[in-house]
Structures are given as structure tokens and as C-alpha cells.
Write a structure and sequence with these properties.
Elements: E1 9-10, H1 16-33, H2 41-48, E2 50-51, H3 55-61, H4 64-90, E3 95-99, H5 106-110, E4 116-121, H6 123-132, E5 139-143, E6 161-165, H7 174-187, E7 192-197, H8 200-206, H9 210-213, H10 229-232, E8 238-245, H11 259-270, E9 275-281
Parallel strand pairs: 1-2, 3-4, 3-6, 4-5, 6-7
Antiparallel strand pairs: 7-9, 8-9
């Protein structure tokens, strides 16, 4: 069930609500400029439901760099959705858990009619989500801090579970994330966790964009990853840690973009190490 489209939902400038708009609007822009690669009618529909002046962000995203940012956002959702759909082939009734969901609709894009969806974010974010994207059938919106692991008690993983996070863990302190991952591995044996990451160079670059808008300037304590071997050492309950290229690992869009965007893709792969990471938690058996 979705909210009525004739009602406009006001989004305050310079608030946590505004951070929800960025990836949503990025998917809308990408859908408009790269319709053969991405077509996201939901992003367009939800943006049209918001009482928010997109003109400033629109100007930024019309630039070459802005359009590449939109490509990144849309490709990230494609990658994570691919992993969810792949997991559901062998676990059709599994829990699909969106960590730091914002206004992301990946569960609905992957819903096979039998799985269960959990969308988790801070209570004020979930309050906005409940207005704009109220939970549908077999879906729950849970308002809580991911570091308060009580949310784990609400996940029914009896038929398997896949957890994913889109652009979320960049905001976590490394030590907090290590604790969270270890707890998840113990609580959900056999489950899968998928998320995006980059190296410290990429994190520093984000201090001028995404992290800056969140008021974060010091990235040294925050999570970034030079090599997946670091994660492999975090817990004995990780059965495997694998990685794929963010922009080319699931569907290679290289041939479908401009020369400038091709160069940006090469830079992201070689210099920023933008990856999709998949951790399989060790089974109890």
C-alpha cells in the first residue's frame, strides 16, 4: 500500500529528512538520462509526492560529475537488488533486511510474493517513511539505531536472511561496525550481508559531498576498506568475504556511457576501490 499521490509531504532543508532525498532524486535523474540502463518509476513518483525544491540539486546533477553520482546511486541499487534476488532463488521465504533504508524500495523491487521485508532506520526517518511509503504486505518498517542490536530480535530468519546496506556504513565508526558485524554473524548463522564500500581516498572525497552534508569532516575513525582481507580477520564466524566492482561487477555499463564517465568508472575501480562486498556468515552446522 502506498500513500495517496495527491498529498505533498514537506521535506525540511538542512535536516535528516533532506538526506533521504539525495539517493532518491539520483535514481530519478538517472532514470531520465539513462532510460535504457535504468527505469525507476517509483523514484519519480515519490519525488513528485514531496514538497521540496529540487532546483539546486537538479543543477548539480545536470553536470557531468552530478550525472555520474546519479549513475553510482542507481547502479548500487541494481547491484544490491541482484544479490537479494539471487539469494531468494534458494531461500524464497527469507527475510530481506534493508539496513539504513531511508526511502529505498529495493524490497519491493525484489519481492517474490513469499519473502519478508524489514526496513530499518532511525525513528525520525521511519516516521517520514511511514507517511510516504507505509509498509505493505509481508513488510515492516522498524525505527531504531542499528547500533542498538535489539532490532535483531525482530527479524524472523527461520527461512534464511539477507541483509543489505546502501551508502550506510560510510557513516559508521570502524570499531562500531566491527561489533555490529560480529553480533550479526552470531545471531544469524548462514545469512548473507551485502553492502558498498570504498577506500580511504574515496572516503576523503566524500567529505566534500555526502559526508559534508551529514556534518562529518574527519574520516579517519570511519569505516573504509583498502582490501577485503581486513574484513576476513574481523570474525571467525565469517564463512567467506567476496567483492565485485561497484560499476562493472554485476552489469557492465562501461560501453553505454560517455568517454568522461568511462574515465570516472576506471578511476572508481582503480583509485577509489568502489566495491560491493558480500559476507556469508558461517552456518551452525
Amino acid at each position: 500500500m502506498m500513500a495517496e499521490t495527491n498529498k505533498k509531504y514537506h521535506i525540511e532543508k538542512n535536516t535528516v529528512q533532506e538526506t533521504l532525498v539525495i539517493p532518491l532524486y539520483g535514481r530519478k535523474v538517472c532514470s531520465e538520462h539513462f532510460p535504457k540502463l535504468f527505469k525507476d518509476k517509483e523514484a519519480e513518483r515519490i519525488c513528485n509526492m514531496l514538497d521540496y525544491d529540487f532546483s539546486e540539486k537538479g543543477k548539480k546533477m545536470e553536470s557531468t560529475a552530478g550525472l555520474f553520482g546519479a549513475l553510482e546511486v542507481a547502479q548500487r541499487q541494481y547491484d544490491l537488488a541482484w544479490e537479494v534476488k539471487d539469494y531468494l532463488k534458494s531461500h524464497p521465504k527469507a527475510a530481506v533486511v534493508n539496513l539504513g533504508c531511508g526511502l529505498d524500495d529495493t524490497f519491493r523491487k525484489c519481492d517474490n510474493g513469499t519473502c519478508k521485508g524489514y526496513n530499518i532506520d532511525m525513528p525520525d526517518v521511519i516516521a517520514v517513511r511511514n507517511e510516504i511509503m507505509p509498509a505493505g504486505e509481508r513488510e515492516e518498517n522498524l525505527g531504531c539505531d542499528l547500533n542498538d542490536t535489539k532490532w535483531m530480535d525482530k527479524i524472523d530468519d527461520s527461512q534464511g536472511a539477507i541483509f543489505f546496506a546502501a551508502g550506510v556504513f560510510y557513516y559508521f565508526k570502524r570499531d562500531d561496525l566491527r561489533i555490529l558485524f560480529r553480533k550479526m554473524a552470531k545471531s544469524f548463522p548462514g545469512a548473507v550481508l551485502v553492502f558498498d564500500t570504498c577506500n580511504k581516498r574515496g572516503a576523503k572525497m566524500m567529505t566534500k559531498t555526502w559526508l559534508k552534508e551529514a556534518g562529518i569532516s574527519d574520516v579517519n575513525a570511519l569505516f573504509s576498506m583498502e582490501d577485503k582481507s581486513e574484513l576476513e580477520r574481523w570474525s571467525k564466524n565469517f564463512a567467506s568475504v567476496t567483492e565485485r566492482s561497484y560499476m562493472r561487477g554485476y552489469r557492465d555499463i562501461y560501453k553505454d556511457v560517455s568517454t568522461t564517465h568511462k574515465l570516472m568508472i576506471k578511476f572508481c575501480d582503480s583509485m577509489v576501490k568502489m566495491k560491493i562486498i558480500k559476507i556469508v556468515f558461517r552456518s551452525e552446522n
